[in-house]
Amino acid sequence: MTQQPQIWDKAVQxxxxxxxxxxxxLSWTDLGDTLVALRSVLHxxxxxxxxxxxxxxxxxxxxxxxxxxxxxxxxSKTPVKARTKEDFLALVKTPLERGVAQADAEQVTRAVFRxxxxxxxxxxxxxxxxxxxxxxxxxxxxxxxV
Length: 146
Description:
This protein is mostly helical. It has helices spanning 3-26, 31-48, 51-58, 63-70, 85-99, 105-119, 122-131, 134-137.
């Protein structure tokens, strides 16, 4: 019975670590704003990916972040047709500005992509970049750091 609280504590700790890394990357102090930023980019990414690839990415996310990633998802409406950088950043910007009005969508997107590249397998990041048109793929760091 003591195993369940330990599992929960580990899930909270790992998700908090990711959130703190992103806050540091953005030079932000408000973790609530950081969570809004993470959610905005993850949802745009999830909605842009084919269903199977979206699910494969989710397998690499910490439990609580995985819940945020899947929250509100409508797989039948994906993938969305954001083919340009501007289209993709618009997917990020709308929910981001509702929570963090002063945030720059491209800066936030690049920071989240660096976070993912640091924790998700290089093969998975390569698969995602391969699906994206070049100008979207260029938002990702050149190499995954896992």
